[in-house]
Amino acid sequence: MPELPEVETVRDGLARHIVGRQVTGVQVLRDYSVRRHEGGPRDFADRLAGRDITYAARRGKFLWLGLAGVDEVLVAHLGMSGQLLIKVPSEAAEPHRHLRVRMTLSAMDELARVARPDAQAPGQPVFLDFVDQRTFGYLAVSETVPTADGEPGGLGTGEAVVPELLAHIARDLLDPAVAAGTPGRAELVRRIKAKPAAIKRILLDQTVVSGIGNIYADESLWRAQVHGERPASALSRPALNRLLDHAFDVMTQALSQGGTSFDDLYVNVNGESGYFSRSLNAYGREGEPCRRCGAPMKRSEFMNRSSFWCPKCQTKPRR
DNA sequence: ACTGCGTCCTGGGGGC
DNA sequence: TGCCCCCAGGACGCAG
Fold this sequence. Notes:
319 residues, alpha+beta, 5-stranded antiparallel beta sheet, 7 helices, 11 strands, 25% helix, globular, DNA-binding
């Protein structure tokens, strides 16, 4: 399932290969894959046709593409199995089995070609295929609203706007506005510290800090040697800062391992290539020795999700 | 305001 | 071999 590093890889690929093209056609093969779009699939296609793509941005696991001339953007959430694949027409004859939406994009404009000489197939039209086996992902066109803090809406854009449909989603840890040492980070820690709920629940709460899923929550907690059921308010500010730093590190490292798959005009966000699973220290390691102390790792149910943790390094709070 | 839980969906894989 | 069922996941919406 795509977590933030995989989504950032996709964003980077879109920025390099899609920006500067125009949407010339939209084919919705599965209506359900266009969701949270008020006018429905038909209106979705109509709104995109003829638009120039100006930037590729991301906040947490939400992606969006800027559209020239309108206060609207194309939003994409990959869910747990979504992929955005760029196909040159010659290889698009046999569409993917789980193709849900296909967008036809024009050749790249001159400005973009000069700015990004490494772009794939700049001189020819391409398909942007939204492939999604389990259909938890979706596409929508959303209006934009100004950001509350006046900072850019996400990574990959300088514009201080954010799609309305994800305006409630907090910034993620790769966002400079909440980087370590900034006022934004201090404010985030203060907010977390004020919460009595379990720290893992807070890490997973996208309205507090976004982009942390079940896997990276467990990895961050393992690194910080904090049990996920510990109340957030019971942790000191330095401890919370350390935890967030670990979360940042885990995601940054995964990102550096997965960066280049877009070069093949193919983005694997399923983790099938295994580039991010090889470095996991907690997730999925029930019964295996802790890589720090050797104690057998535990698995437990928390919030209807599996949690993996070391019983020795991450002492469980007495309830 | 907060929390807990059900819901959406699909097909791979385990169990019988 | 075949078939059925369960399970995984993020985000949201509702009930308490």
